[in-house]
Amino acid sequence: MLEQRIQQHFIDSADLKYQVGPALSKPISQAMQALLACVTSGGKVLACGAGVSGLLAAQFAAHFVGRFERERPELAAIALPGDATDPAADTPEAIDSDRFARQVRALGQAGDVLLVLSASGQSSVVLAAVTAAHARDMTVVALLGHAAGSGGAIGRALRETDVQVSVPHERAARIHEVHLLALHCLCDGVDAQLLGEQEGST
Q1: Continuous H helices in the chain
Q2: What pTM does this model have?
Q3: Distance from CA of residue 114 to its chain's centroid?
Q4: Are 61 and 45 in contact (CB under 8 A)?
Q5: How do beta strands 113-118 and 77-79 pair?
Q6: Which of 33, 85, 140, 158 is deepest in the core (most CB within 10 A)?
Q7: What is the C-alpha to C-alpha distance for residues 87 and 64, in angstroms, rounded to an integer?
Q8: DSSP class of residue 137?
Q9: Strands 163-168 and 139-146: what pairing?
Q10: Residue 140 in 3-state DSSP?
Q11: In Å, what is the CA distance from 10 to each residue of 4, 6, 77, 166, 184?
């Protein structure tokens, strides 16, 4: 029974990725181009998310500053610290909803990119950060999720110059899994643009 349940998780995760791949490849490509334009012009990427999404943001920043799969010069990225240990923080009722916005106002400049993640699309702390980024004339790349695929309140707050990658699913765990894959695609895409295609890569 338990093995069957575990296998179903793998099946469900693979099915969702297979289904949304064609729809998400274009916005992920647009997000990659936004990140590339930012770092090659001397800008930086600020990344944030609440709860589990905050851990994914930190992983992305580590790959950008360090390396993904190939050695390359460091790229400027900062994971904004927040309460990444509390999964309930990814809700509209998150405490101290200005904590990311203050950091964006302090560190963000025109030409920088704010990369936000929210599986619910409703996180008030992330929404406030998006508003602060717009005030700083920053581009926002938003990895979101929503049962209807709309990206929730954060999706509605985005501008035409922003990029939205929204996963249409009701389970946060599945959305996080696709977000992680999308972040890997972003890192790989930037590396490919900077270093050229790796021999034997797909």
Answers
A1: 2-40, 52-65, 99-107, 124-135, 152-157, 172-195
A2: 0.91
A3: 9
A4: yes
A5: unpaired
A6: 140
A7: 24
A8: T
A9: parallel
A10: strand
A11: 10, 7, 32, 21, 19
